[in-house]
Amino acid sequence: MFSLFKKDPAKKLQKSYEAKLEQAMHAQRNGDIESYSMISTEAETIRQQIEMLENSKKD
Question: What's the helix, strand, coil split of the chain in %, to 5?
Fold first, then answer.
């Protein structure tokens, strides 16, 4: 009954993922390739978590 009011964790992760991608873009534009690669790796980890959540919802 109260599942209507529960927050979707995938939405929170999606916002975090988009923020990381934007941070990575700015680092790349500033020429900081090391930071770009680290932030991109973090974004990839978040994307994998999103996929795991989506796959668990399907099952």
Answer: 85, 0, 15
Return the domain boundaries, the chain: 9-58
Give dist(CA 58, CA 8) in Å, integer: 14
Tens place of pLDDT per residue across the chain (59 aa): 566 667 888 899 999 999 999 999 999 999 999 999 999 999 999 999 999 999 988 76
Per-residue burial over 2-20, b if 16 or more Cβ lie within 10 Å, else e, is: eeeeeeeebeebeeebeeb
CA angle 43, 46, 52 (to 5 degrees): 145
pTM of the model: 0.82
Q: In the structure encoding, which two tokens stand for residue 33, read together?
A: 């390739």
Q: Which two tokens stand for residue 50?
A: 């999103």
